[in-house]
Design a protein that fits this description.
The chain is mostly helical. 72% of the residues lie in helices and 0% in strands. It folds into two domains: 9-61, Arc Repressor Mutant, subunit A (Orthogonal Bundle), CATH 1.10.10; 69-208, Tetracycline Repressor, domain 2, CATH 1.10.357. It has helices spanning 11-36, 43-50, 54-60, 64-88, 95-102, 104-110, 113-128, 130-157, 166-183, 192-204. Helix 1 crosses helix 2, helix 1 packs across helix 7 and helix 4 runs parallel beside helix 8 (130-157). The radius of gyration is 21 Å and the shape is elongated. This is TetR family transcriptional regulator. Pfam families: TetR_N.
């Protein structure tokens, strides 16, 4: 007697399983890149670490570069969403109190060695690989535009008079953070907040202004 055919899994369940596979592959890649660099993260090595076949990899990503782009997009989207939620909580606060809420987000990220190192590694990989650089450039521009938007929001809300344009301020802040991540131990990251606050206040002119009433 033939065994009855197994019922087809609901589409939602298949999507959930694929999402879990994708997430595990990305997490495995993140850990390998953080420990040994992009060059050491082969597709076979990523699959072995995640416990999947290479077929599972190619069901989710067309190439290693596809996975790398997904890593940075996922990471930056989460950071920007977190910053937006935090900015919404600064309504009516002074600039100093606003920065006291916003800047710890960067400290938290700096204290996550794998995630923070991978961000730096992917920037370096883009410098070394022209093909990856072409794909990475619009992603970098997109998240830099988000940081610029957040910077402009703080400038407008607190009626600041920056000495340089907002895009350059956003770039300087992220460049400072990237440099600090590569040079400081995770337990030294708490010093970032005071330094980043001083840098932001200096570039936006806040350090030279008399405190004003925050705009609604």
């Amino acid at each position: 007697m033939e065994n009855p055919r197994s019922p087809t899994l609901p589409a939602r369940t298949r999507r959930e399983m694929q999402a879990e596979t994708r997430a595990r592959l990305m997490q495995a890649a993140l850990q390998i890149i953080a420990a040994r660099g992009v060059a050491a993260a082969s597709i076979r090595g990523i699959c072995d670490a995640a416990g999947f076949s290479q077929g599972a990899f190619y069901s989710n990503f067309a190439s290693k570069d596809d996975l790398l782009i997904a890593l940075i997009q996922d990471h930056m989207a989460g950071l920007v969403d977190d910053l937006d939620r935090t900015i919404a909580q600064t309504e009516g606060l002074s600039l100093q109190d606003s920065l006291a809420l916003v800047l710890p987000k960067f400290t938290t990220l700096a204290q996550m060695p794998a995630a923070s190192v991978v961000v730096v590694e992917l920037h370096l990989h883009a410098r070394r690989s022209p093909s990856f650089a072409k794909r990475f450039a619009p992603v970098r521009q997109a998240y830099q535009a988000q940081f610029t938007r957040i910077t402009q929001h703080l400038i407008a809300r607190h009626d600041l008079r920056p000495s340089v344009p907002a895009p350059q301020i956003a770039w300087a802040m992220t460049a400072f953070w990237s440099g600090a991540v590569t040079q400081a131990a995770p337990d030294e990251a708490t010093g970032f907040e005071a330094l980043m606050a001083r840098l932001f206040e200096s570039l936006t002119g806040a350090a030279d202004q008399t405190p004003k009433t925050t705009r609604a």
